[in-house]
Amino acid sequence: MHKKVALTSFVLVSCAALVVWIPATIIFDSAEGSVNVNPASTLAEPLERSNSSEAGGGVHEDGSAAIAEVGAREQTLETAEAQTETTWFAEDARVSSEMKRELDASAPAGSVKQRYVEFDAASALATLLGTKALYAATPGERKVVEAEKSLTVQTFGDTPVTIRVDEVAVTQPLEGSSAPMVEVLGTRFDNGVQRSASFAFVPDEAGDSYTLRGQLEGSTSAPSTIEPASNGVYRVDEIDVDSLELPEDGEDAIPVEDVFDGDENVEADAAADSQLDVAGAALAGATATTATDGLYNIDLLVGYTHGTGPNIVAEVASQVSQTNQALQRSQVNARLVLLETRGVDLNQSVDMRADLTSMVSGDGQMAALRDRRESLGADLVALVVPNATSGSCGIAYLPSPQGASKYGYSVSAKQCFANLTMLHEIGHNLGASHNHEALSGPAHPFSYSAGHAVPGVARDIMSYACSGAPCPRIPQFSNPNVSFLGFPAYSSGLPDEATSREASIRWHRSSRTTAAVQSH
């Protein structure tokens, strides 16, 4: 059994929009790229940060939106050479006319261009990292491992592109397959322009073989996806997300204060219960939280309803990999750890809010999912349903400033995966609101907990479409010290005018020990 003393309702804020709840006193200095942890303390004074853009990047002193990219990992690799000899997806597969018709008919929604390629996922994985690294994690652990530093891929056109490998992590399942899931998080370089790339190697239930799923951000709102098609044949699709016309402007974020019971006082519960959990941690001989590879783990349990398809487990793994790539790109020192993906024996409701509230209350078939969360110690629970309903692709709870792990639930439609909906809803659980332009009032739970959009340029995961000008959704969270991928002159976030150089720490407890890191 996977037991934890910590980590609950994380509130993700990478400098401007993300707040991470963890059970220790932590000072996160995004300007210096450092994290200091002191589990014995419960309060830290605001941390003053240098205004220099040399180490941490940020908006230039003249106030322009140009960004000083952060360190060597933000340097362009136009001349980088792949350390592997094989280019992924370079070999076109030989398929019969009949098979091609079948594959074309099963193309993902929004596919405007297709290729069918030969690809051996197991061989590619063996080239990427060794056996020792592959099995480095313990059950329920996500561990960053050493691997090749770059690779080359070929999607469309004759010229392969280089992908810098920024992070490779293995997650050993708690149950089921004996083989780990492998995430490859990277940055692709397309004519000197940076784009995101993420891959998930997913084992079968027996642990005997692997399949690969991946996403490569495109130059516009047309990313490329990679997924298995049939017997060693993979499909590469270019997806026109705009053509999907998915609902995006619904009220999908519910502040937990709006659903508290009359006798429910989250602040009182937090103050009282945190002391119990701290004492429990001490009795167990454990620190309040453990950072693995300098990263804080957000344990995730995923459920799926009828109608989500036979490949949903692998598709969820791919979504988690893409979320972690966004966190990595946004300089957030936390990652999702996929503990388990399990079926829920019910059909989705007509209204997503009904499914969301049923998870919290544990009604009917949702009781098993809620009980499983408790047995695993999962911080968050995400439910995947087949389709958008009631004009919404998803719905999630937004925590209060004190947290509220009881409400760490979200619902996302598989139909909307291409528009980063699952990432968006989990972002709400982690404390990120929509962009200011899309809000009717202040951001929640903090005034700076907002997404960021630049009309005519781009927007982050949490932002809605711009009015009057295109702004494709980029897989990253807002951070004033990080530029939008592909747009180095534009910051992905706005600094808070009064406190953009401060970090403050709070303790919180909802149903597990937590502490808040507000870094902005």
UniProtKB/TrEMBL annotation:
InterPro entries for the chain: MetalloPept_cat_dom_sf
Family annotation (Gene3D superfamilies): Collagenase (Catalytic Domain)
Top-rank taxon: Bacteria
Pfam families, sorted: Reprolysin_4
Gene Ontology MF term list: metallopeptidase activity
Protein name in UniProt: Peptidase M12B domain-containing protein
